[in-house]
Write a structure and sequence with these properties.
Strand content: 25-35%
Bound molecules: flavin mononucleotide
Number of domains: 2
Shape: elongated
Radius of gyration: 26 Å
CATH class of the largest domain: Alpha Beta
Structural class: alpha+beta
Largest sheet: 7 strands, antiparallel
Amino acid sequence: MLTDPSPRVTDGRYFRSVLGNYPTGVAAITAVGQGGEPVGMIVGTFSSVSLDPPLVSFTPTKDSASFKALRESKSFCVNILGEQQEEICRALAVKGADDKFTSVRWRPADSGSPIIENSVAWIDCDFESITEAGDHYIVLGAVRDLAISKDSPDLPLLFFQGGYGRFSPHSRVMPAATDALEQIRFVDMARDHMESLAAELGMECSAVAPVENFLVRLASAGVPPNGGSPVRVGIRLPFEAPMGALLVAWADPATQDRWLDRGVPRENVKERDRHRDALERVRAKGWTITLFSEGFRSIDKRLENLAADGPTRQPDPHLSQLAASLNGPDAYERDEILSGETYQVRNVSAPVFDSEGNVVLYLTLFGFPVSTRGDRVLDIVARLVETASRVSDAISWAGLRKSIASAERRA
Ligand SMILES: Cc1cc2nc3c(=O)[nH]c(=O)nc-3n(C[C@H](O)[C@H](O)[C@H](O)COP(=O)(O)O)c2cc1C
């Protein structure tokens, strides 16, 4: 038997204010009305429901005039609005208006429903079902087609506690994976430092750690300038020569050999020696740099494709091939960066050590301008190395506190 709800539940304002603690994105549901005119409404209740079959949902209130017009159509399009589209959001949320699209630019999807220009992504659907649920309907849509808008480098618009907001450049950490718990603990100690550095430089700072034989990008802070998408966290990359050099540059020769075995055949003595020399220089210098090259462009393209699949359990074999074909030590080690020269920098990285001097992760900065003068590159590297060393200190202190606590428990 159902128990009577608490009086708090029947207080509509309180109900809303509690549920307003759950932030949402903002989607414009659009269709073509009976007279051929565009119709639409804003919802915060859009959700992905099922992959097989592909279904999505939203919940319009029963007294929505806009939904009345929308449901006359056989199909609708979900437009995920970007942070620059508050204006469009306001226009489509007006109650009872029939000229909502006057200043909205759009093109028809295959179904005819409007795809709003500069939306972050769109999902074209057929109405699958409309089910009553209290004073709302639950609408299921069968997805016909969908895409991320190429013309929009925007991040999504957010809605929280009755107000519009933006995705702020705080760090994102991958969801816990059982085989990476220790590494995530280290990354937690790095996050504040990564966020400050990313904000100060206006760049993106990510943390990569070894998990078994993979490199995993565990966290990232900040967003790249020039509107690029932030890097995806959770992706597993091949940890084999030449990838992940910083993690083995300070390791014992046996560990370095295993790393070389994974990337360079034993008989290729010359190439292995070149890597060993380069590792020694990395150790002397204390950081690495990669410049844009054909090889890295192919790797970045592949990473972009993989990102769409979300976190991966296995590294991608194609990515391993691309990594192996990188031009040996060129992939992480440049002899010298000259102040007066300009460079097309892909990223720079610096190691983070634990109290025993093992490299437990490395920090990488992305988002350099197309070409950067050497002196600026070196300034940025200095800030990165300083930050990595602060994180090393934090990790060492935490290790020390843990040992003291366990010694005290034993005493
Ligand atoms: C951020 C935001 C989220 C909204 N979410 C919903 C929703 O999930 N369901 C709904 O029925 N209305 C929602 N609305 C309200 C409608 O967009 C809109 O105000 C309404 O459809 C216009 O009223 P009308 O349809 O009666 O003309 C939302 C409005 C905003 C601004």
